[in-house]
Design a protein that fits this description.
Helix content: 25-40%
Largest sheet: 5 strands, mixed
Number of strands: 27
Oligomer: single chain
Strand content: 25-35%
Number of helices: 11
Shape: globular
Length: 469
């Protein structure tokens, strides 16, 4: 069973709002009750939110061999239609008013959600190990899905629980969407450890979010860079969150300056701050930097999670052993997914990855065994023959004190910078031109109020790219 770490079934598992409290014994019963809605092992689209209904639907599907695809309630109709046409799920569990075709009929209601079943779906062959489908980061609505097993989920939950020392008396809050691998891992790790989750759809910019933390004595808080930027804007030193003991950050890069500011403030509050690195293709997290190492190894993604291994490879697959030499970061562990699906027939495929994930990120490893991301294989462009790492350029501009996103194409670089009183466009353009040895005429700088973001808080580079193509 996925919830194997539960010792006392009368402990609280889920809390929603002020009053709704679900114990583990009640959760187990509701998982079993929900499973009666299934009449065959097939696909289910769970178009949900951070609430009890969605968590029960997810856990019930995992336990009873129905394969869920998790989608957010803000996924638009066109994207959902596209995925339905490709994958033809037998079941759809949703709260919003979708325009489903005539093949689907309302077969039940559950906690304010509608459960639809299709009689027109053919029986399909699913690989016996397939347990969960997630969209890759930024690909909601795309047919490209990550194929995960129950072993992936359990392995990653146990590894994360080990290095974060999650116990049954810990309590997290759902600060990230359930359908995002990082948000889901917060759910998985705490429930697998017999701990509890406060479920909310409120954001960190809403008073209710912080009210719930103090109301329910939440002990841990997870966020992506965007969330921590919000916390800095709110005034991290003014936050009154006495119950919080751990805070974690993954899902992208924060500038060294911001990491140091956050860490220094949290130390004063006796809160441990963990920065982490991960990919959906490895279920959630791959590495972590312990709180004591943040000052010693600024900018590092740390070391591999327990039971995982990281190394670097050159272009021809040769393992790089030299200190501080750059190569592709490769990871191995039981949390590595079976591979991708692009069509319904791909759901019967076996394990393509064999426990090894080529991350697509360029990294180096220092003499102490700590890894540092130095770029992305896919985020390189050529400007009149000069090869430019957009990731590295973003970091250069971050280090100058400016929030930015860099995109490129057609022999042009567009640097979008948020409003900053210290910004001189001409000076920044000149400095960047010299740093990357590119004529300043190929560089554009645009001042923006904010960047387009995905539901998980990450920069939406596809939307940004349309500004230059």
């Amino acid at each position: 069973m996925f919830l194997s770490g539960v010792e006392n079934e009368e402990n609280i598992a889920l809390i929603q709002g002020d009053k709704l409290v679900i114990t583990y014994s009640n959760l187990f019963q509701q998982i079993e009750d929900f499973s009666r809605l299934f009449n065959s092992k097939h696909l289910i689209f769970i178009i949900g939110e951070n609430d009890v209904a969605s968590v029960i639907a997810y856990l019930s599907s995992i336990e009873f061999g129905v394969v869920p695809l998790l989608l957010g309630s803000k996924t638009n109709q066109g994207q959902i239609d596209n995925l339905i046409n490709i994958y033809k799920p037998k079941y759809i569990f949703q709260k919003i008013n979708l325009n489903l075709n005539g093949e689907y009929y309302l077969s039940s209601k559950f906690r304010g959600y509608s459960f639809f079943t299709s009689n027109a779906c053919d029986e399909i062959k699913l690989h016996p190990d397939l347990a969960l489908l997630l969209t890759t980061s930024g690909s909601t609505g795309s047919p490209k899905l990550v194929r995960l097993t129950k072993k992936n989920l359990i392995s990653n939950a146990k590894s994360i629980s080990k290095y974060l020392d999650i116990k049954s008396n810990d309590r997290a809050i759902s600060s990230l969407p359930l359908n995002y691998s990082y948000g889901l891992s917060v759910i998985n790790t705490h429930l697998n450890s017999g701990a509890s989750i406060v479920l909310t759809n409120s954001s960190m910019m809403e008073r209710d979010f912080w009210y719930l933390i103090n109301k329910h004595s939440v002990t841990s808080l997870a966020g992506v860079p965007y969330n921590y930027e919000m916390i800095l804007r709110l005034g991290i030193d003014r936050l009154k969150i006495p119950s919080i003991k751990k805070m974690t950050q993954a899902g992208g890069k924060l500038s060294y300056d911001k990491i140091n500011r956050i860490n220094a403030n949290l130390k004063q509050k006796n809160i441990s701050f963990y920065t982490m690195y991960g990919q959906t293709e490895a279920t959630a997290r791959i590495s972590y930097l312990a709180p004591d190492d943040i000052d010693k190894k600024p900018g590092s993604i740390g070391k591999a999670i327990p039971a995982g291994k990281m190394w670097l490879q050159g272009k021809k697959g040769k393992v790089i052993e030299e200190t501080d030499s750059i190569g592709e970061l490769v990871y191995s562990g039981d949390n590595v997914s079976m591979g991708y699906a692009l069509s319904l027939s791909d759901l019967m495929l076996g394990d393509k990855n064999k426990g090894i994930l080529r991350t697509g990120d360029l990294a180096r490893c220092d003499s102490d065994g700590y890894f540092f991301i130095e770029g992305s294989i896919n985020r390189f462009i050529k400007i009149y023959g000069n090869r430019i790492s957009l990731y590295s350029l973003e970091r250069i501009i971050f280090d100058k004190g400016f929030e930015n996103v860099v995109i490129g194409g057609n022999n042009q670089i567009l640097i979008c910078v948020t409003k900053n009183k210290n910004l001189s466009v001409d000076k920044l353009k000149s400095e960047v031109s010299k740093e990357i040895n590119v004529n300043h005429k190929s560089i554009q700088i645009k001042i923006v109020s904010d960047f387009p973001r995905l539901a998980n808080g990450k920069i939406d580079y596809k939307v940004m790219q349309k500004k230059i193509t």
